[in-house]
Each structure stands twice: as C-alpha cells, then as structure tokens.
Amino acid sequence: MDLLAQAQIKGVQSEFVDALGKLRVTDPVALKSILDALPEKRVYRFVEGPVVLRALRHSRTELAATGRVPLKWTITGNAKVIAQGETREPVIAWPSDLPLGYHRLTLTDAEGATEEVPMIVAPERAYGGDFDRGWLLAVQLYSIRSGRNWGIGDFTDLAGLVRLAKQLGADGVGLNPLHVLFDDHPADCSPYSPNSRLFLNPLYIDVEAIPEFSADLVPDAAATAARLREGDRVPYADMAVLKWRALRAAFDAFVTKASGARRNQFDAFRADRAPLLSRFACFEVLRHRFLSPWWEWPVEWQQPDDAKCAELRNGPDKREVEFVEFVQWTADNQLRAAKELASRLGMRVGLYLDVAVGVQSNGFDAWNEQIAISRHLAVGAPPDVLNTAGQDWGLAGFNAGGLEAQSFVPFADMLAASMRHAGAIRIDHVLGLKRLYLVPRGFKPDNGAYVQMPFEALLGAIARESAAHKCIVIGEDLGTVPEGFRETMQDFGIWSYLVMMFERDDVGHFRSTDFYRPNALVTLNTHDLCTYAGWRSFSDLKVKRSLGLDPGENEQDRWDALGMLDEILRQNGITANDLYSVLAFLSRTPSRLLAVSMEDLLGVLDQPNIPGTIDEHPNWRQRLPVALDKIASKVDLTALRAATRERSRNGGS
C-alpha cells in the first residue's frame, strides 16, 4: 500500500494550506515516519466509526453503506453484557436506559462476520455550572511568596489564595498545570511539559503540614528554607533537594509512627487510584534505577506489566514504591483541602486547573499508554504569522487508533485526574481534539502533518467526565479554528476561551462586549502574552528584541493598539484606561467567567513565559513582587470591587 493510501486510512493530512496561505506538502520521508509511528486504525464495515450516544439526543445509529442486515448487536461493559438486540433495518434503535460510560459494541451479520466498535454513552452536554457570571483570580502557584513556604508556592499558600480570592469577591482561583514533572530534573520546570497528567507535582506539598513531620527530622530545614525564599526567582534545584529530603523523612516517620486511621486512609487512597497509582510508583522506582528512557530499559520492563509491578511492590523495592504513593497521597490530600475550603467559603467554582496538551515521551503516561500515545511524534503547529518556522512543542499526544482500541479510557482517565479537585478545567490547545499537527522526531516543525482525531467521541468523553465530576470544561480554542469547530464544541457544552488581546477585527479594532459568547471564559491576556503593565509600557517589545525575537509589531503598531483600546473603552462609557477600566469592560461581557491575573493586579512588567525561549528568559521561575499576606494591601480593592461588582456575589464585601 502506498504512502497516500496509508495516510488516508490513518487520517493523516499531508497537504494543507497554512495560516500564511502557503500550500504545505509533507516530505515523503517525514510522512513515512509519521505513519510508522501511528498504530493501525480500524476501518469499520458496519458503522461509520465509534458510536457516541447522547442522552435525550441520538437514540438511533445509521449503518454504513457496507453494513448488511439483519445485524445482531451486543453492548458490553466491565466484562458484562449491558444490552443486546437485532436490527433488520439500516439503523439501530438503541434502548433508552443504557448506562453512561465507555463500552464495547459487537456487531455480527447473518454470515457470521463480526466487528467490535468503541461506544460512549454520554450526557447531552457537559456540566454548565450553577451561576450566572463570576470571576477568578489567576495565579502561577510556584510564584507565590510567603513567610513560611520553602522557596516555592505550595498548597498551604493555595489555601491562602483561596481566602484572598474570597476577600476580593472572586469565585475561585485559576492555576497553572499541577501535573507531576521529573523530580531528577528540577530545572526543567515548565508545568506544560509533564512526566504525567495523571498525578500531582510533589514540590507543591507543604511538608510541614504532614502530620508525621517535625522540625527535628530535618534540623537545617528552617534556615535553608529562609535562604530559599530570597530573590526574585524560584531556586528549583536547591528547593527540590530540601523538599525531597524532608518528604523522605516524613515518610519514614509515617511508617513508624502513623496511627491506624492514617494508615487506613493511605490504603484506601492506594486502592481508589489503582492500578494507575501502582504503575506510576513502579515506573518512578524503575526510572531512578535505570537512569535512562524507558525504551532503553531491560526488555521485561519496557512494557507496563501488573504482575511484574506486583513483584516489585513486594520485593526489596517495596519501601520505595510506597514512598512514591505516600507522596501522591499527601499532595492529593493538600489539594483536596484547598478545594474543600473554597466550597466552605461558598465559592462557585473553587479551583480552575489547567491541562497540558501532551506529555514528555520518556514519562509515565507515554510508557503506560504506548498504543494510545505516540512517543515518536511531537505535537506542534504549522508555520503562521508569529512563528514562520512552525512550532514543535516536544510533547507526545494521544492518537486516534490507540484511543479507539481502548474505548477512550486513557483519555477519560486523564480528564478524571484533572477534574478530581477542580470546579473547572481548561484544556490546552483544544483544537487537537479534532486534528493534531504532529512533527516526527528529527524533522523541523514545518515538515509535520495534520492527523485527524475522533472529535465527537472525545467530546462525548469530556461531557461524560464533566457531568460525573460537576466540572466546567473550557477549551483553549485560539488560533486557526476549523469551520464549525466552535459550534460543535459549544453544542457539547464545552466553553470557549476568549482573550481580549486577540479579539480584534481585521483592522485591529477591539471588539465590543456584545461580541463575546456567554459560555466562555474571558481574559485580558495569557501566561504566554505580555502583562497589561508590560503592554502599556512597551516593555515586552524591548525584552523580545533583546532576546533576538521578532515581537510581531513595532512601536507605532503598539501606539495604534493603545488608541484603539481607548476607543472601545470610551464607546462603553469608560473614560480611563488603567487595568481596572479594562476589567470593568471585560466584566460587562456576557461571558460567564472572567479570569484576572495576579501579575496584572500587582503591575508586574514581565510575563511568566515567552514562547520560543528556553534559557534566554526565566520562564516559569519568576516570583511575584509581593508576599501573599501583603497582596490585598497592594491591590486597589475599591477599584477592583467596582470593576467586578456585576460578577461578585457579594460585591467583594
């Protein structure tokens, strides 16, 4: 079979027009690398593809042109038959009482030909929240200064942020991804390049809040932590050394001193998160043993094997396995405590968490899901106006064939882990649910190809998990959006992500409040864009030029943009143009959530991350200029409350 025929079967689009209007044709060698990296994708005979049923919506499924009747069908889930029947028409009418979830559908024709198809039974729509309009305080958790943390913002600081947000009148706190990274590479600190999206970053643990920890276990901790709190950047390497030493001391104390109730809670957590937690713990032990990517490990460990993991858990490494599980239990407990605090305070969202677009290829998720995640392919973007060479984000993502083979359970597990303690999540690069731009390892970003994804099935899984966890889902739908994408997303109850800096017409005029959609989160900027103070002062242009980057605009362009901002504010009866004036404008939009960044409230000039840089800029390392307990005194509370009055349940009182 030639390459183009294989590409068609696997949904690989090797020819497309990029955002610059240029026809892109993937190099044949690169195309072959992409096809070789993707698993086989089933071509279904009886139906068009995975079957997605939505409550109160689709009770019938039309058969494909190749489907022959009569046709018997059986739905199974958890190794049990859920329903079965037969059709003599070119459609299947489904029972109305099918349970929500991820099932397998077996179809058999009169000649005995059989095929198995993934099936998702989902609610009609994702969870939509129970409020009209509100706002969130958006923070990079690592950036928080406090007089008690160990050099990085932690989950106790998060509880303080929840209280601060309540004081300001907000409905929750929005955070950078909390995914676990690689503990042996603390300098690799991007929260968007995780080891796994299923587990939490232990560096956010407040070790002193662990019941079994006491100061005498690490006598130099207080002095070292005081030193680590100094400076404008998070000292990841030194902080990680101290925190891991203290976590081990706390675990040793837990093993010898913990009460029966605490041990029972630990065992219950391990059972609740099995088998993924057990596998993750084994993976971490093996990763530290072999000190190489998992595909270079001894053959018996290159694939996850629960029987082998059981041997590891009960062998000489038992204590190390339990330590990894203990750390995850501790992180989970502390994050849950912040969520429960928000709930007690009556906050209508609580925690709003970010979900990265992919994972590092040598991490746990890629090892655990070798069929559903393609480690040889990196998610990225084709050339556009801002990145003329294209982008390679270096992250491995899900693929269609592998997800279909497992009834989309790996995707659902990832969602469930993210929603576990969240009232809302944001899916980074949600356009990847329809098609992913993939770059084969060893090739430049402009030699990738689009790969089609099972869009409806993934939306069905989101609706299912969202409803089960009562969690709002926001899709980061920035960039070149395929026709009909947003409409389909909104039909499933997934909200849009609207950034005011991008909401401008072809001439550059800012769009007015009535342009913004209701089911959306609106924000002035993002962590990848300049802060408001940086934008008004032209600081971002100077910084990017100093780094050898093209900022995409010149000073006159910026002056024009500032004038256009004044214009849209005046049109809405707002005469000033400070941050609070912009927030007042955004508050008037019909969009149900507004995110306000802490950097903007504190007048920070530099942005958290500058795309296209690694070591040239202190990405994901910068601390806020003010300690947590002093933030309220540095914010103009009267102006903030006036700007967000329409969105605050109690006006911030």
List the SSEs and their pairings:
Layout: H1 3-10, E1 12-13, E2 15-17, E3 23-25, H2 28-37, E4 51-54, E5 60-62, E6 71-77, E7 80-87, E8 91-93, E9 101-109, E10 114-122, E11 134-139, H3 155-168, E12 172-175, E13 179-180, E14 196-200, H4 221-228, H5 236-257, H6 260-273, H7 276-290, H8 306-313, H9 318-344, E15 350-355, H10 364-368, E16 377-381, E17 391-395, H11 400-405, H12 409-419, E18 424-427, E19 435-440, E20 449-452, H13 455-469, E21 472-475, H14 485-491, E22 496-499, E23 520-523, H15 532-537, H16 539-546, H17 555-571, H18 579-587, E24 593-597, H19 598-601, H20 631-634, H21 637-643
Helix pairs in contact: 1-2, 3-9, 4-5, 7-9, 12-13, 18-21
What does this structure look like?
The termini are far apart. The chain is of the alpha/beta class. The chain contains 21 helices and 24 strands. The longest helix is centred in the middle third of the chain and has 27 residues, at 318-344. The model has no long low-confidence stretch (mean pLDDT 94). The strands form 6 sheets. Strands 21-18-15-12-11-24-23-22 form an 8-stranded parallel β-sheet. Helix 1 (3-10) crosses helix 2 (28-37) and helix 4 (221-228) packs antiparallel against helix 5 (236-257). Among the domains are: 51-122, Immunoglobulin-like; 134-339, TIM Barrel, CATH 3.20.20.80. Helix 3 (155-168) links the parallel strand 11 (134-139) and strand 12 (172-175).
